[in-house]
Amino acid sequence: MLRVFGRALIALGGSPNLMQQQALEAIPNQIATVEREYDLEIETVRYAVCPRCNYIYEPQLSPASGTVTYPTACLNRSPLSSTPCQTPLLNCQGAPLKVYEYNPFLKWFATFVAQPGIQQYGRAFCDNVRNQPIAPVDKLHTWDGDIYRELRGSDGELFVTDDEQEGRFFFLLHADFFNPEGSTGRGKHHSLGVASLTCLNLPYHLRQDHANVYVSGFIRGPKEPSAVDAQHGHFLRPMVLDLQKAYSRGIRCHGAADPTTPTVPGPECTFRAMIGGACLDLKAICPVAGLLDINSHHVCTSCNVFHQESILRTDHESWEPADDDYYRKGMQKWKEAETLKEREIIEHYYGTRYSPLEMLEYFKFSTMIIAEPMHAMYHRVLHLYFREALRLVTLDSIPPRYASNISFYHDFTHPPRPSNHVEALPEQRPQCEEHLAYLEWSDLSDDDHLLRISRLEDWLMPTMQNDIRALDDVVKGHQLLSEKRPAIRSEEKELLKRLSALRWHSLVYICNDLWLAPLDSLTSVGISKSDLQKELMAHWLQEWVNSKFRWPHFTVHNRPPPAASWAPPPIHIINSGNYSHAELTDSERTIKMENIARQMGYESVVRVGHIHRFLRQPLDNEEQLEKNLERASRQALTYVCLDLNRMPGDGATDKDALIAQLIRWRSTKPTEPLLGPEIHSGDILKRIHSCIREVVVPSWLAKPPFETGLKRAGTLKVDNWRTLFSLYVPLALLSLWKETSPIRSDDYAEMQPVLDTSMHLCCASILMAKRTVPLERRELFLHHYTQHIKGLRQNFPGFGVPTHHVAFHVYDFIKLFGPVRNFWSFPGERLIGKLQKTPTNHIPGQFEITLLHSYAKGAGFRRWILRTNRQPELKHCHSLLERAYRVSYGSDVDDDSPRLTHSRKKIPADLARLVGSSDHRSISLHSHFKAQSGTYAVVGTRGLGNSHICVCLPGEIEWRASRIQYILERDGKTQFAIQHSKDFNFPGEDPFKCWWAGGFEAKLISPLFSESLVLIDDSCIVGHAARWGPTNGMTVAINLSQQADKHFVASTSQCNNVDNAKTLNTTSDLSYSIAQFIHALGRSLRDVGSSRLTGTNWICFPPPIRRTYLKKRSYCRKQSPRPRDGNEVELGKSKNDDISVITTCTANNSAAPTPVTKHFTNPVDPQVALKRAQEESSRLNLLIENLAKNLECSVCLEPAYQPYTLECGHLFCGGCLMLEQGQMVNINRDEFRCPMCQQATIRTPHPVFSVCHCVEAIAANNKDKIPTLLPFHWKILRPRPRPLAPRSAIPRSSD
Known about the structure:
Elements lengths: L1 H10 L6 H8 L5 H7 L7 E5 L6 E2 L2 E2 L6 E2 L29 E4 L2 H9 L4 H14 L34 E13 L13 E8 L4 H4 L6 E6 L12 H17 L2 E4 L13 E13 L4 H5 L34 H13 L3 H11 L14 H4 E3 L1 H17 L56 H19 L3 H14 L7 H12 L3 H11 L19 H11 L36 E2 L3 H14 L2 H15 L5 H9 L3 H11 L2 E2 L6 H12 L14 H14 L23 H20 L14 H17 L6 H21 L6 H5 L3 H8 L8 H11 L10 H20 L5 H14 L13 E6 L4 H7 L7 E9 L2 E4 L10 E4 L8 E11 L2 E8 L21 E4 L8 E4 L3 E11 L2 E6 L20 H5 L1 H23 L2 H4 L19 H6 L46 H24 L13 E3 L5 E3 H14 L18 E2 L1 H13 L34
Parallel strand pairs: 6-10, 10-11
Antiparallel strand pairs: 1-2, 1-5, 3-4, 6-7, 7-8, 9-10, 12-13, 14-15, 15-16, 15-18, 17-18, 17-22, 18-19, 19-21, 20-23, 22-23, 24-25, 24-26
Helix pairs in contact: 9-10, 12-24, 13-16, 14-16, 15-17, 16-17, 18-21, 19-21, 20-22, 21-22, 23-24, 24-25, 25-26, 34-37, 34-39
């Protein structure tokens, strides 16, 4: 097509010449030619995949023919004792039916390290780790993580050892399944798997660049491989083998080429690589890591917490880490298991299946399988709390009240983890106690007795002893047989239905134990399901039902009763109120419980947690509780009785006696279910919708749907949940339920516990996402999340999911890997989003290969674009791409280097006066500024929220809300001219400021901005600010910065080096001057009018000060010496000598800033008193500075001597105004304009006597000589009238 276009273009000028003909012939005919020219194609390995068991077979090169061959049928055995799969692998043409195309890691790594700068980043990362042998407690960077100081190389030394000849790289594994057709609807339509690696040595913005992300291949759908059979590991095995080679043997390849000789390969170097961690969501942990998922009783892969009843534990400090050797042992046993039953036993005890990650000798499953915070915290904890706890799913005012399934909480001793007490293979354990015990009939013949016992012991018991559900059904069947005989037809049908619901093996066991016909006529030990139907056995048992005694003691018509030597005589449990119990000491109970824990099997340990649940449930009738407890084993009942110190007093340890003690203990507890609070969910959801619509946020912050919570809002993404609980939910709840809120609801008093629980969760999510996590912030996260879990137990009883426990370990993984953005799944999800947009033919078996090659080509092309020494045609292509798609192939916003856009040279008058420079040619203005903390813009540009920022000036503790008026660049330095928001005097405690220390930094401010401009550097900007005006005259400002708060740590120690005497004497030294200023200022305000301060044309700015008869800067420093540390700026001076008093004060600063750490301050501490005195000194100094600035002449910029004011409100010295009028009259003799705003005036300037008195008081206080007053004579001039438009310019009517 390009060649045709070229010929047509040349034809316009005639026949082509020789050069044009050569240019046309140089145009490639196919895109593949260009791909080969730039080496964009990758060499992959195609594995044949079994369509049934997903086992992969590597291609074999035939020495004779030189062709690639595969086995014709699958020979995999899973488990080992099973027969081979024997599924055909090839079609009639000899090609594989199913293919997995693998991108070799070693080849990709050679391309990766050959990029410019990669080796330097890798070595710098290792140097930073080596320079700090002890991991810092403040996690500010990726290399601050503890994991990089724990991982060892193949030689036993630290992996990042100082070796000049080798480079060391860490990678993070991410694996997930996604729908390649898009995720517009719910449900799985087509599932495709992908595994990727990102290099942790690189900075964050380069690490997530797809040119530096490795994709091993795509696992073909439409269904996922079986996680129960560990089939995912087949596809991960080639990548793991390459990683093992890169770790143990190393990779020798060429490094980056020298920029001066780009065509010459770089020197050969040796590199080693290893997996630093695996970032997997809660579903991918099971198939990829070879561990059971969190829905099993092995709820956690990082610690020893076991059982679903332990998910709301808060004793984080007592959790022991999981045993990695035990995980590896379980995986080896699972892999070598002969039968499926053995595998099931191993899964119960070890909590493992198999994963090829076990082949990596350095891999630690307890610390390197990461509890991914994106899914665990945002997608589960926040999501479920929003929908199920607060029930924000409807606009109805009060939904039905939340009813729980528990009546009380009790701190039971949690079930022990069975894997911690099993040394041998679990199949050698004893039988499951009473569950499979059988009766003894005296009227059976020898042959019948032998057949019955053989059928029980040789067939049914081995089949059922590890099947928990089958054992449960045996107990349920015995309970059904012990009930009263049905009296009516409906009761008979119900009994028949319940018996038919039992498992087939359980029904066979009960019928064989009772020796019912026709089992007595079947001579074989094993029975097939076709010979004996469940409905038939249920009918026999229904006819047999006895109503006199409880199992196993009963009478049978025309037969002698059976014997049960393993069961004591029957006891009427319900009426056993006289049972006494023995009191044991704590040491005795602990020793006995430890002994029982070492003896208990998996089923007994699971039953311990079930007993806890049964005892906490509402007690409708004791008979149902008795039936539930009968399902538990004697060991489990004994363990719980010891925990409650309710062992039978007569020393009996049979089940009946233990159950009687537990029922007696339960009768002393509440019986009614706990109720949740009555929450007006509709009002909360309406307030959240209002916040989403009204809050002004920067353009980079995507708002959730306006109808969040309702069905029509659709499915929210994870980032929407994060934004909701970081901004909108706290604003809505604080405005509704805080006592001092002006728009609070009527039920605010009852909702205080729910508000605290919700805000603890919001603060935990905010603190977790910070880009830097000091130790104090990490401890605060753990504190807030712990308090949230305790609040759940108090306010929402019975509400809990396994992810509530998993989210606790975010604290541990921050310690291991640094801030959460180093190990969460957002980059992996973005990669999936890009893959979903890749065009394919949508044919299974083909589009997976297309995706892999398209991604590799795109990454290769991007690597070419990023090179500084790229060819001219690539530079032109780069320019075309930026114009067509408005994309940048440079560094992202996360890059530390700031960037300016849309410059202009025209300098406004107010900014020119602020800068105070006569030569403005070196100053350029910009509309946008891209920095690490965000993209900032001036007022009036697209995206109003981009101009709202939080500013913390040197010496201040708390940020102030401001907006950017101008962005200027001068002498290579970027500065911002901003306007501060005016302070808001709220009567009472600020309702939005009470959770400031927890991470939600919000406060009430005035909706108006100060008229004065302040010039600051980008280092003073904390981040963007969100603004919400809930009422007229009041605005809430929220800090949206994800960076570390500059004053988070420093604020607690800022007063340590303060001079006590000078600080404490400040207030008394300044009291007289303050009184004079306030008195004089009050009179000046009455005389000048409100327009003097609030007029839109009046702008006050702090220019350089020239020392004259009033030393207006000296009186502050002489009377209130201010202690300084290295970070403070002296009043009257600036770090930039050209501009004074610009980065320290403004014209309307009247309130003292509140320190961030006020909630942690002891009011009796002397250091606190010193700190408050210092703050008061700073406040008074700033107040005097601001008051003095308001008295300045707009021309000479000194305190106005003989002050006069014009109609526009600007203040001038009489002499300055007379001089300006004379110059103006010489130019335009018929009008006079204000020297500042150029507004025409027709009135005579009038004096301001109150300001004159104020200046005189200042001069008298400083002992300055006041000059003699001079008379002034003003000439009244009229403004020039506007000329009328010429007659020809007047539009005429169409008539």
